[in-house]
Amino acid sequence: MPRGRCRLSAEMRATRLFFQSLSPCCCVLLVAQIICFEGDKQHQATQQLISALLFPMEKLESLKSAVASLSEISENEKNGFINLVSRYLSGEAQHIEWSKIQTPTDEVVVPYDTLSTSPDDPAETKKLLDKLVVLKLNGGLGTTMGCTGPKSVIEVRNGLTFLDLIVLQIENLNSKYGCNVPLVLMNSFNTHDETLKIVDKYSNSNIVIHTFNQSQYPRLVVEDFTPLPSKGQHGKEGWYPPGHGDVFASLMNSGKLDAFLSQGKEYVFVANSDNLGAIVDLKILNHLIQNKNEYCMEVTPKTLADVKGGTLISYEGKVQLLEIAQVPDEHVNEFKSIEKFKIFNTNNLWLNLSAVKRLVEADALKMEIIPNPKEVNGIKVLQLETAAGAAIKFFDHAIGINVPRSRFLPVKATSDLLLVQSDLYTLVDGFVIRNKARANPTNPSIELGPEFKKVGNFLSRFKSIPSIIELDSLKVTGDVWFGAGIVLKGKVTIAAKLGVKLEIPDGAVIENKEINGPEDI
């Protein structure tokens, strides 16, 4: 058969596949554009359309070839990456019709206070807990806080790290009820090696710790759509972890999911390792088992600090996550309103393991793709990522639970570290407990200048962390140093003058003041 005819046949097959992927409305519009032309112009328009349709496919074929030669990643990772890129190139995206959005009922987003109490009988509690696995997302580095290595090894309080606290919490559960709740850490290639060294120190603990790596995907060079490692960038800068939406496939590919199912485990509680409020909750676990819910997202009431957070909506008979990136421009202010959209996603998720297995095997988890442009050594690259919360719409009997704010206590910056190291919290058996002496249900607003950004600098600027039980807000800028035994109350602003070191003396009590120099204290 002549080569030209083979090429045309391939073009027509590809074009047919593309048209099959389009909605009938889109097909009609494209064809209507072509038949507006006559003769040669119509032929030229047809060829241009075919070229436009084939261009993404040509890019994909070239990319497949390049990815196949990458020895650093597994076949599962290669297939997962190509699948993600293919979906991205197809332009698939859910269009939200704003008028169809409904506020979820209490059956869909269940108020925490309405949950049944957990069993009083310790033997029944043990049965519940023996069905549970705890998984912490441990792929992030502490670089934004000036630390090297996994963020989970930053010291939070009393010399204990995030990971120390997580291990203490689960150890306490296992000892108290005689159960066997395992801890699973989903690492990235950035955190894997160091995490394995750290985990070794828990070898004598009353807890089994498992680790696995989430997928490692090559960054895409924007200019020619080739993998960055193919350009000679074989170090860590050539790769990226594709977001926590990868937890489902990676848990399956690691073999851990099947192993847990064989041990009689039914649910996995997934949370960020830096969320100190994300502890095992027996009321939630009991509710999910009793009601056979395959997926649960913990949400909590929005404050003005959370207006960009994703929220749960009812949409065409399903519960789903609505992110700000999906919101039409004309409705962004409405989305940010805490009057209409009153809750946001904490990223504390409870998943039925059998359901995860079913959906991964069926390749049914097609979460919205998040394009994340970056620049590496002067090269513009693209990372394609997904979020675990977006998977809620694919599970049966999926719900949200509107939980107390205490279950959302993330430490993303040193301002958060100030909160959890202060007298606003105490530490009991690895659990960070809020001080009941504070009357205000919300935490004070803390804003620290760049001098405090790195953990080392932050710690060196405080002889001891001030008392903030009665603090409403604190803003600190400039070269400020805090003595010991300081008490802050009400609204406090401390701004050192440029080039001047400002020391707050030991034992100072500052209430509703703006301080620019020693004379203001």
UniProtKB/TrEMBL annotation:
Stored CDD domains: UGPase_euk (cd00897)
Record's keyword annotation contains Nucleotidyltransferase: yes
A Pfam family it matches: UDPGP
Top-level EC class: transferase
Spans through the membrane: none
Keyword flag Transferase: yes
InterPro entries registered for this protein in UniProt: Nucleotide-diphossugar_trans (IPR029044), UDPGP_fam (IPR002618), UDPGP_trans (IPR016267)
Signal peptide: none
Catalytic activity: alpha-D-glucose 1-phosphate + UTP + H(+) = UDP-alpha-D-glucose + diphosphate
EC number in record: 2.7.7.9
Key words, A-Z: Nucleotidyltransferase, Transferase
Top-level lineage group: Eukaryota
PANTHER family found in the cross-reference section: PTHR43511
Family: Belongs to the UDPGP type 1 family.
Name used for this protein in its record: UTP--glucose-1-phosphate uridylyltransferase
Species the sequence originates in: Hibiscus sabdariffa (roselle)
Lineage: Eukaryota, Viridiplantae, Streptophyta, Embryophyta, Tracheophyta
